[in-house]
Structures are given as C-alpha cells and as structure tokens.
Amino acid sequence: MRTAIFKQEWRESWSNKRLIWIPIVLMLLASMQPLTLYFLPDILASGGNLPDGAVIDLPTPTPEEVLISVSEQLRQIGLLVVLLSAMHTFSHERTNGTLAWLKSLQIPTSRIVISKWAHYVLLTVGGLVLAQLAAAYYTVILFEAFDVTAFLISTVLLVFHFVVQLSIFILLAAMIESGVVAVVLTLGLHFVMSLLIGWVDLDWMPWMLGPLSSQVFLTEGDLVWPIVTGTVVVILSLYVASKRLRFMSHTA
C-alpha cells in the first residue's frame, strides 16, 4: 500500500506513453545541437542565396561550446517539455475525485505528494541522462573529446536544476487548482530569477544551478551554496505541498 500510488504513476506513464516520449524528446533536443553546429555551414550555404564563389568560413566550435549549447537547450525547451508533461498533476485527480477518495482512505498527504514528485523526478533524470549521453556521443564523433569530469559535473548540476524546478511546480500544483497556472508560475519565477541573477549578486541561489551547468566547462565556480539552497527549496516545497494539498476541485 505504501508504494501503490508510486506504482500507479508509472502505470499511467506507460499507458499514455509519457515514459517513452519524454526521454525521446529530450534526446532529440540534445542531439540536435551538435548536429546543427556541425552542419551549419552547409545549411547556410544551401539556403543563403550566396553569390557564386562565396565561401562561408565559420570557426569550428569547441566540444565545450557544443555541450554548453546542449545544456542551454535542455534548460529552456527541455524544462518546458517536462513541466507540460506534468501539467495535470493533482488537477486531474481533483476533477475526477481521485484525491478526495485517497483522502477518505486516510492516506498521508506526504505520501501522495512524494510519490508524484519521485515519479517525475526519476522520469526526468532518466531522460536527461540519456540526452546527455546522446549529446556526448555526437560531440565526440563530430568534434573532439572533452573533459569527462566537467561533463559529469555539468550533468549533475543540470539534473539538480530540473529537480528544483519540478519541486517548485509540485508545490504550486498542490495548492493551485489549475495545472496550467502552476506551469506558468513556475516558468515565470524561473525567468525572473534568471534575470535577477544576471543583475544582482545572487550566486548562492538555486537558480544558479542551470547557468553553472554551462559555466563548469569554462571556469570554476562556487557550487556549494546553490546546491545547499537548492536542497532547502526541494525539502520546503515538498513539506509545504504536503501540508497545503488541495483535495477538491471547485468545479467538480
């Protein structure tokens, strides 16, 4: 009974093919960057309507630059894909009465929240690891080898960045009736904090985890405080979500 909700989430992910298409989309996003950068001169030459004899001479990006572009692609479009896939978390169960039924069984709210959070985190982590491996493969094949240690650190930071954003979304989805609003607020907060970090010295904030996943290829940065504050945000988000989970929909 303790893992029933968690197992049900995986069965639902399999039935609606979320278990398949999320990793595939993330892998495609990651693979497109090295492929696009490698064939960019040919793409420009074929579609640029250049005069005869013109030559496009673009500097070949370094493997680090390629992997940085992969990280940025995943942090932007990949995060949107993951949040949209989780959009109906809690809101669908409120509408069909599943949450109210779970409450009548006296199942702890913390078990409900953590089961859903753990499902999406594991699904996302698996997709991100596969995406990073695909990016690494094409980078080595099309460009050159890279610093494996920096790549592993970048992957860990990127994964933790997604975990923090998913935790914030779970908190908002637990309290707000509309899953769409929860997605918009999560992305809005992410956008605002990313801007503030660029203007103010907020390098200790968990929203630095994303930029750090790129910066680690170029310079050494302070990783400790973003990881510590990120961990605090995850724990507080799950705790508050468990306390403030809304079971009923007003439109039900």
From TrEMBL:
TM spans, by residue? 120-143, 149-173, 180-200, 223-241
> What molecular functions are annotated in GO for this chain?
ABC-type transporter activity
Which keywords does this chain's UniProt record carry? Membrane, Transmembrane, Transmembrane helix
One GO cellular component term = plasma membrane
| Keyword Chaperone applies | no
Q: What is this protein called?
A: ABC-2 type transport system permease protein
